[in-house]
Amino acid sequence: MNITCALDHPRFRGAVAVAFACALFSASALADQVKVTLSGDSEVPPVKTMAAGSGTVTINPDMTVSGGVTTTGLSGTMAHIHIAAAGKNGPVIVPLSKNGESGWSVPPGAKLTADQYQAYKAGELYINVHTAENKAGEIRGQLKP
Fold this sequence. Notes:
Blueprint: H1 3-7, H2 10-29, E1 32-39, E2 52-59, E3 65-72, E4 76-83, E5 92-95, E6 97-99, E7 103-105, H3 114-121, E8 125-131, E9 139-143
Antiparallel strand pairs: 1-2, 2-3, 3-7, 4-5, 4-8, 6-7, 8-9
């Protein structure tokens, strides 16, 4: 049997389709979809506020980042992903884009460095939202793998 005939066999085509589907599923299954809840109690120092936030951030094995958060009870001026353990403050690593009145999104093409990805795996990334009243941040949530 020649190779062209073997590749054209219905069983071979089916096996290729299954293998391709498994490969796609495996790649997406390796991504971390992190649910995050933001509150004033998680800020450093804690902030007394009725504001809250929640969302999902996806961190892929290739270190690309997507997703965002939605807030209630505040007028946010800025939002970021920072690097620092819970209970500590750290520098901005990904500025978020405002999306409507209460949404914040990771900009397209955002990617962590290798060190930032390791910090994420150690639970040392967080999102916070800043307001005019609380310029250092009003609500915060740690990104836990």
